[in-house]
Design goal:
The chain has seven helices and two strands. It has 132 residues and is mainly alpha-helical. It has one domain. A two-stranded antiparallel sheet has the order 1-2. It is globular.
């Protein structure tokens, strides 16, 4: 009903919430939370987005993140995640693990793929340093 009234389907609303969580975690110095949030976003972009159809997005009520929100999340991650030990395991599983160092590479690649101006300058500089 809200979509009919306002034209806003709300399908990208969860991405706005994740940005708000990232900013609050940054404000509080909760680097691990930022790392887990960045991992979710990075995995979503690399593992799910390439396979999602319009029907999937409508069923889940979740679309790909708007580029501006993605830029905000990567901006926070590329500033906060390096404050963790690079060997820290963000997620471990019998099939593999992702360390802070690997997560930074994932975020850096994602950030550098975005249109200019969507990633904050400090984060963009970090991304370029991480990639080399």
């Amino acid at each position: 009903m809200a979509a009919a009234r306002t034209g806003d389907t709300g399908i990208d609303r969860p991405w706005h919430w994740l940005v708000a969580v990232a900013r609050e975690a940054q404000r509080r110095g909760e680097h691990e939370l930022v790392a887990h949030l960045a991992l979710f976003v990075g995995m979503w972009m690399t593992s799910f987005v390439p396979r999602l159809t319009l029907g999937d997005c409508q069923d889940m009520r979740l679309s790909s993140p708007p580029a501006a929100r993605l830029g905000e999340i990567y901006s926070v991650a590329l500033v906060e995640v390096p404050k963790l030990d690079p060997t820290t395991i963000v997620v471990g599983h019998p099939t593999g693990r992702i360390t802070v160092e690997g997560l930074l590479r994932m975020c850096a690649v994602g950030a550098l793929e975005l249109q200019r101006g969507l990633v904050e300058p400090q984060a963009l500089a970090r991304a370029q340093t991480v990639i080399g």
